[in-house]
Amino acid sequence: MKSEIRQATLANLDETAVLFDLYRVFYRQQPDLEKGKAFLKERFVNSESTIFLIYVDNQAVGFVQLYKLFHYTKLAKQWLLSDLYVHPDYRGQGLSIALIDRSKLWCEETNACGLMLETEKTNIVGNKLYPKCGFEYDGLHNYYHWWK
Hints:
It is an enzyme of class 2 (transferase). Residues 3-148 form the N-acetyltransferase domain. The structure is a single chain. By secondary structure, this protein is α+β, with helices and mostly antiparallel strands. It has one domain (3-132): Gcn5-related N-acetyltransferase (GNAT) (Aminopeptidase, 3-Layer(aba) Sandwich), CATH 3.40.630. The protein contains 4 helices and 5 strands; from the N terminus they run βααβββαβα. The protein has a 5-stranded mixed β-sheet, with helices on both faces. Helix 1 (13-26) crosses helix 2 (33-45). The longest helix is centred in the C-terminal third of the chain and has 15 residues, at 95-109. It is globular, with a radius of gyration of 15 Å. The mean pLDDT is 94.
């Protein structure tokens, strides 16, 4: 199997939105392709995130979405690896690792100090994948959310 990773643009909105909708369903959200497409379109138009798509046989089968943050102790830009998804039919073939590796390269290309991410404790696959890819578990911090 040969795969290729390309940075997504507004021209890739439809294929990105399909994968994004599947990703949201994976996290127990109701499918809403149109609302997801509008959300992604806004990210593209306002240059608010960077998305890489992974293709197999010229078909987009996965993506990673990164958001720019700034790290207070490193005094540098860093990237939040917000979303990572590979279609179930293509899992177990190293595509997630390839997307993470591309994200690490993006850090080098953009002079960022690194990547951070969070995932649910119940994400068994992700919690095995991330340490395998060089991420260190941060047991010192608690992450809190405030939702309006």
